Amino acid sequence: MDEFITSIDLGTSKVCAIISEIDKNRQLQIVGVGTCPCEGIKKGIVVDIDSTSKSILYALEQAENMANMEVSTAYVNIPGGYTKIIRNKGIIAVSGEDKEIDSEDIERVLNSAAILSMPQDQHIIDIIPAQYIIDGYDEIRDPLGMVGIRLEADVDIVIGSTTTILNAVKSANEVGMEVLGLIPEPFAVSESVSNKDERELGVLIIDIGAGTSDFSVFKKDQLKYNGLVPIAGNHITNDISVGLRISFDESEEIKRKFGIAYTPLASDEKMLKVNPIGIDQKLSISEAQLSTIIEARLGEIFEMINEELIKNDLKKEILTGIVLTGGGVGYFPGSKELAKEIFNLPVRIGKPKFIGIDDPIYSTGLGLINYSLKRKFNYYIEHNDSEVKKSNSSKKSGNNITSFFKKIWDEYF
Ligand SMILES: Nc1ncnc2c1ncn2[C@@H]1O[C@H](COP(=O)(O)OP(=O)(O)OP(=O)(O)O)[C@@H](O)[C@H]1O
Ligand SMILES: [Mg+2]
């Protein structure tokens, strides 16, 4: 099995392309990585196709040069807050005389589950089987080859705004890339920063990027809730810029070099110099002063997420704790301590464990690859591991993200 999978993460601050290979030893290898700053994406959404395409092209070229190969297909992300998940049910009579369920039956039951009335500006992105029921016996993950008369499927239908979908896909198409699937970020990120046990028992994953803070609760290995706060790393930089009256670029630089997210960890004595706009002299500020600004904004994001969890009675579901990821939170010393104080739950930082992408900004990019492997081939990779394992079922269930996406997508053309 020599398989190459490419992902394109469309982020508010950067586009990232990752080319991966499953080698002969069933290890996932990252063979190419490229990133490019992007001006065409605001709050995770493509607002300028030309500019986004250019960033995709540069990021891909870097990744292709590193991998020494050309790619033409990729999986692309869509921010979680812009998608909605609807649980629906499909029922069919098994067709064959021997009543053995084949891939056509599975496709038929999934298609019947996908019939629902939707607002005109929304479109189906994906259909994810949650469980199959054969003649009343539930919790079946893969019915292929089993015998029964009536086949039911409970599915999660992922829908998203048509404009958002079209613009993301068009940006990739402009540079000759075919989009094999659009993957909502919570599904992607969870695959790269958490393991199955955590998702089974209950985990909260918070991905704070540049423009959006996505959060999702997983329980019984399924997405139970996901939300989005439209405040993230850029707002922290902006606050520093306004608070100290310095340029955005200088704020970004000092945030990265000296930023601490939890004031008890910052020093009153350690001083740094900044260049306020319109003043000739440099100004001295303490590490603690800088930290106060960062803590206030990050704390606000955590508080907003916490309130939404309480309002929806979700805190009791989070048995294993919180995983923080994304560039807006993953680098700061003290972000764990701040989150622990606000949520009163165990916290850890999540990032990919692969050399070259061992950073919280790559969680979505790697996650897109992991998730597509899981859906496309029924393979999975544990967090902290690079071995590609086969799921319990040895057969291909027809539950293939590519075929569904293609089918849905073909309706547009
Ligand atoms: N070393 C660092 N210290 C602090 N913050 C950092 C550091 N490096 C990057 N960041 C911040 O990370 C943010 C970008 O993170 P990320 O790449 O995860 O976001 P994105 O995917 O582009 O955006 P989004 O997910 O919101 O669409 C920026 O706000 C940037 O300032
Ligand atoms: Mg992101």
From TrEMBL:
Its main location: membrane. It is found in: Cell membrane. It is a peripheral membrane protein. Keywords: Cell cycle, Cell division, Cell membrane, Membrane. Cell division protein that is involved in the assembly of the Z ring. May serve as a membrane anchor for the Z ring. Belongs to the FtsA/MreB family. Self-interacts. Interacts with FtsZ. This is Cell division protein FtsA. The lineage of its organism: Bacteria, Bacillati, Bacillota, Tissierellia, Tissierellales. The gene is ftsA.
